[in-house]
Amino acid sequence: MFWRPAFEVDLDRVLRPLKRGRGSLNVFTDERGITWLATNTVDGQGTLALRRHPDGRIEAAAWGEAKDRLLSGVPALLGADDDDSGFVAHHDVVARARRAVPGLRLGATGTVWDWLVLAVLEQKVAGKEAIRSWAELCRRFGSPAPGPAPERLRVPPTPMQIRALPDWHWHRAGVDIKRRTALFNAAGMAHHLEHAVSLGGLAGRHWLRQVPGIGVWTAAEIAQRAWGDPDAVSFGDYNIPSMVGNALLGRKTDDAGMAELLAPYAPQRQRAVRYLEAAGHRRPRFGPRIELRDYRAM
């Protein structure tokens, strides 16, 4: 299938929120420039391969039970349903960031489960520890990706596979009891939670928070990926308030300060954050670091 978007598509930038470096076994770009995505959907499992041609066309191929869903979802995945025309930059630094990345789009996968698992694993732990757990679960308990995919590509564990894992497997993956309980709770109502995509926005985030262990931060992280929510800010994040405060004030701030700074951008507060991130703004490299805890040794 070929799709010619009406806008410039930067595959790496639009899909970057889905990737997790070397620990990203379900989505990565190979040496040929093909981006692979292996995922669970309401139709079953599937593999999607994407390549951008020099003339701007997007070539897509898919395999598995979810083949048709994945192909029809390519435009939304790459940001075709996103619209920033009503966005107003209330700070010069945001305006400059927007000009620096005019092609920024918020993509939507249209699915909840995989991104819920990843978000829960990232709760209150260092990024390296979460990525290690994610890679371990995908490698050992996920499924080989359908079709002629690279050998390393894995479909993340299904809700049934998550519920079947005994305690010692969780321990080996470095996942503590609080996060595994949240995943177990979510797995029991996973199909129900996919309704959040059709609700979208604040209603969709509230729907996700029916699961014990899914709070504001986790719901926002899922919403950003599942339906490209432009207002879902990750309050409670270790890095984002400092990044936003440093970019807009020249000093770090906390969640309350970030909420005040971003209030004028509602209902597109997350878009403002993404512009700052895409323009290279980062949390200042000073102060105490988050403690690295290896739950496999506990």
From TrEMBL:
InterPro entries with a match to the protein in the record: Alkylbase_DNA_Glycosylase/TA (IPR051912), DNA_glycosylase (IPR011257)
GO molecular function (one): DNA-7-methylguanine glycosylase activity
Top-rank taxon: Bacteria
A Gene Ontology biological process term: base-excision repair, AP site formation
Gene Ontology cellular component terms for the protein in this record: cytoplasm; protein-DNA complex
Keywords: DNA damage, DNA repair
Record-linked SUPFAM superfamilies: DNA-glycosylase
Keyword Transmembrane applies: no
UniProt cross-references to PANTHER family, sorted A to Z: DNA GLYCOSYLASE (PTHR43003:SF6), DNA-3-METHYLADENINE GLYCOSYLASE (PTHR43003)
Protein name: 3-methyladenine DNA glycosylase/8-oxoguanine DNA glycosylase
Organism: Amycolatopsis vancoresmycina DSM 44592
Organism classification: Bacteria, Bacillati, Actinomycetota, Actinomycetes, Pseudonocardiales
